[in-house]
Design a protein that fits this description.
Number of helices of chain B: 15
Strand order of the largest sheet of chain B: 2-1-7-8-9
Radius of gyration of chain B: 20 Å
Helix content of chain A: 25-40%
Strand order of the largest sheet of chain A: 9-11-7-12-10-13-14
Largest sheet of chain B: 5 strands, parallel
Shape of chain B: globular
Oligomer: heterotrimer
Number of strands of chain B: 11
Structural class of chain B: alpha/beta
Number of strands of chain A: 14
Shape of chain A: globular
Distance between the termini of chain A: 52 Å
Helix content of chain B: 25-40%
Chains: A alpha+beta, B alpha/beta, C alpha+beta
Order of helices and strands of chain A: HEEEHEHEEEHEHEHEHEHEEE
Strand content of chain B: 15-25%
Strand content of chain A: 15-25%
Chain lengths: ~350, ~350, ~90
């Protein structure tokens, strides 16, 4: 077998079958989804789903540069991204699909590495892969690889991102901006070196115990693209409440502050891939915070603010120095500035 | 506080704000800074909330990206269309020239690279045989880096599209305009690192204006505002250094020498303001071969007229707050900017839109 | 204008220094600097070039300036008309 992806790998013939049999199935087919699982390589798979609770379904496509980055790779990201969408809906993840579009010339060893990362994540949370797809596009028509994952989970009662109530406490599960800033540094174009790594992680094991505190969790959201600022604004808009956060309470790694200052990009505008924002009933805020901090992924969890009625649909930031301003939705992909 | 120069502690901020309240005059006073980084610091930290109502702080022509003429941006794009690699600071990317920006030119297939330093443009030129052009915007802080690159043996395929500007002539021009009513200048700290307090003397001579050089930490800015108000209260008008850890009175002679070895002052067009004498730079004769305008003859470009409902000329000259403009936040937003103050991420209107929104707070 | 960050010098080699700012390392060219620097110094870095040397004590010195101004102004309120202008 060639050590690089060729157009034959996407052509549906013998070469593709061997790629699936040698590279994909050994890594992903370990846990059957139902009577007809991934390993059957049928046109579809069957799922054994629980009969009570709400079924939650989500999908996400993943592109990232570089494909291998400090703290993870696109395989880990594709698994965590969709699992975390389920998790912040309050859903225990059950099953994923995985579709890959590969650029001709992509190294098969790299594909194996990122499938290993994907497999490590799903094994750690006990999720099966039910179905998948592979396509190849000619060199130059795609930048390396695109992974699309859909996921199904089950919730006793799904948690929306709009359920905030005045008086709720706003919690984050850890440091903010790690993924986005680590990627900006990792792209290498700015010649910045740092030990900062992406926070990409599956957070269901962190969030699950908080859902067992009855009545505590009113809303959850994962602050991915657009960062904390976008996620808080979306929560405030949808629930027609005002979120007030204290800048000094938002956990930031020194390196994230450093990159933020060097690049002129706010840490609140860049992506997180292993964090959640929670709106918690004030009576349970301390209990939830203690619960989060008991898990390694939640060691830096913090209460950063509360929900008010002051400016419905807006987010107010009480600044470290004692000022106050709106924290607005980021406009687009942040661009470094020197001026 | 982990870093020795992170100066943001709320107790001291309160003390300085108290001092500002005690020093503030009863009559309204208008203080003007000329620095996008000052505006970002002021809005990002919510500092206007800490000032008394009588003390208004406005941004003048302090965003080098906003005051770069549309013709310069169009020139950069036309150079890129001829196949050259154009290296630009990220600030410049989304600023429209003649209806299109470097960013949209990149989407159309041009090779536009974002750099954090002139040095990166040199490295890019060394790694290719293609022509590489560095789009040199910025004030006195940034111009010495361009000079340093010009002075080293730059690769033959590197040229420079000069758009540097000098701040003191713009401050003087502001004072000579009718209706600006400026009570004092908060002078830009890092420009001052290069030119020193002395760099303002010629422009401010005979103009009797309080000037305080300010740093960029939130406490630095509050301190500088307090010093300005103290000068005003005491009827003084001197050039005062409120950022001594980074600014010496004579500035940075090494950087000044680099500038003098490569450039000479030249008249420059400021978007929204017009041509100001001796407010830009041009290459001295022996560096002309580095001039991208000579290497790529893209023809004479004239400034296109701006929308006349747009009040950017008033905002840039500190005669209006962004929210005084009828287009602000309605027809003119960062996603579809009308005037130059909304286009650069450092422009007063853009910053107001992003950080303060409506003035409810 | 002009984002510049005070970074600590880790090493110097010719006209280039490796500097650290809050755990982020980058290089700074030194041609624009007025005086030599040694590891442990701070330099203000703008667009890849160092433009000013600073010492770690400068932060404390600055805070003292702030405190002096605040104290002198609040004393004036207590009825003392001279607020340290002679300084």
């Amino acid at each position: 077998m060639s050590d690089r992806i060729t157009t034959l790998h996407g052509a549906g013939g013998e070469v593709m079958d061997r790629l699936l049999a040698d590279v994909v199935l050994p890594r992903l087919a370990g846990r059957p989804s139902g009577r007809i699982p991934l390993s059957a390589a049928d046109d579809g798979a069957t799922l054994d789903l629980p009969r009570d609770g709400e079924i939650v379904f989500t999908t996400d496509s993943h592109v990232i540069k570089p494909v291998f980055f400090p703290g993870g790779d696109i395989g880990r990201l594709a698994a965590c991204g969709t699992l975390n969408d389920l998790a912040v809906m309050g859903a225990r993840p059950l099953v994923l699909s995985l579709a890959a579009i590969l650029e001709e010339g992509f190294a098969i060893a790299d594909l194996e590495r990122l499938l290993d990362s994907f497999a490590a994540v799903i094994d750690s949370v006990g999720v099966s892969v039910a179905c998948g797809d592979t396509k190849v596009m000619p060199a130059g028509e795609l930048d390396g690889i695109v992974l699309t994952t859909s996921g199904i989970g089950v919730a006793q009662r799904a948690v929306s991102d709009a359920g905030l109530r005045v008086g709720d406490r706003i919690l984050v599960t850890g440091t903010i901006g790690d993924h986005g800033m680590a990627l900006l540094a990792a792209r290498g174009e700015f010649h910045l070196t740092t030990a900062l790594v992406s926070d990409v992680a599956a957070i269901w094991p962190l969030l699950a115990p908080t859902l067992e505190i009855a009545g505590a969790v009113h809303a959850m959201k994962d602050p991915t693209r657009g960062g904390l600022a976008a996620a808080l604004n979306e929560m405030a808009r949808k629930s027609r409440t005002c979120i007030e956060v204290r800048e000094a309470a938002i956990p930031l790694r020194p390196e994230v502050r450093g990159l933020s200052d060097l690049l002129g990009i706010s840490p609140f505008d860049v992506a997180n891939e292993g964090k959640a924002i929670l709106a918690i009933d004030p009576a349970h805020a301390d209990a939830v915070l203690r619960t989060l901090r008991r898990h390694p992924l939640g060691a830096a969890a913090a209460e950063i603010g509360c929900v008010t009625a002051e400016y419905p649909g807006r987010v107010v930031l009480a600044t470290e120095v004692g000022g106050r301003r709106f924290l607005d939705m980021p406009l687009g992909d942040p661009v470094p500035r020197i001026c | 506080m982990s870093h020795p120069f992170r100066l943001a502690d709320p107790r001291r901020a309160r003390q300085l704000a108290d001092a500002i309240h005690l020093l503030a005059p009863r009559e309204p006073v208008k203080l003007v800074h000329v620095c996008g980084t000052h505006e970002i610091a002021i809005t990002r930290h919510g500092l206007r909330r800490l000032l008394p109502e009588t003390v208004r702080v406005l941004e003048g022509p302090g965003c080098p990206v906003c005051v770069t003429p549309a013709a310069d941006i169009e020139t950069a794009i036309r150079i890129a269309e001829r196949g050259a690699v154009v290296c630009s600071f990220g600030d410049m990317l989304r600023v429209p020239g003649y209806g299109r920006s470097l960013d949209s030119a990149r989407a159309a297939g041009c090779d536009i690279r974002t750099v954090l330093s002139a040095d990166e443009a040199v490295q890019i030129a060394k790694a290719t045989r293609r022509e590489v052009v560095f789009f040199a915007v910025g004030f006195e802080t940034t111009a010495p880096m361009t000079a340093a690159v010009a002075l080293e043996r730059a690769p033959a395929n590197l040229s420079i599209l000069l758009a540097h500007k000098q701040i003191p002539p713009a401050m003087a021009a502001l004072l000579d305009l009718p209706g600006t009513g400026i009570g004092g200048f908060l002078a830009p700290g890092h420009v001052s690192t290069i030119i020193g307090a002395a760099g303002y003397e010629e422009s401010m001579a005979h103009r009797r204006m309080p000037v305080v050089i300010g740093g960029f930490e939130p406490l630095d800015i509050l301190y500088a505002v307090a010093l300005l108000l103290r000068q005003i209260r005491d009827g003084r008008a001197i050039i005062e250094n409120g950022y001594p850890r980074a600014v010496e009175s004579a500035g940075n002679p090494t950087a000044q020498r680099l500038l003098a070895e490569v450039f000479e002052p030249a008249p420059a067009a400021w978007r929204g303001i017009g041509v100001l004498p001796a407010s830009g730079v041009q290459f001295l004769a022996e560096f002309m071969q580095l001039d991208a305008r000579r290497r790529f003859d893209v023809g004479e470009l004239v400034e296109s007229p701006e929308d006349h409902a747009c009040r950017c000329p008033d905002v840039l000259t500190a005669r209006a707050m962004p929210s005084d403009c009828p287009l602000f936040g309605t027809r003119c937003t960062p996603l579809s900017p009308v005037g130059p103050c909304m286009v650069g991420s450092e422009g007063a209107c853009s910053i107001w839109f992003r950080y303060e929104g409506e003035r409810a707070l | 204008m002009c984002l510049a960050t005070p970074a600590r010098v880790l090493s110097v080699s010719g006209q280039t220094a490796v500097v650290d700012y809050e755990g982020v390392q980058t290089t700074a060219r030194l041609e624009t600097l007025n005086e030599p620097v040694v590891p442990g110094d701070y330099v203000l870095v703008h667009a890849g070039f160092a433009i000013q040397r600073m010492s770690p004590e400068d932060g404390e010195v600055t805070l003292r300036l702030f405190d002096e101004l605040a104290a002198s102004v609040s004393q004036t309120r207590e009825g003392d008309p001279s607020d340290g202008l002679a300084r």
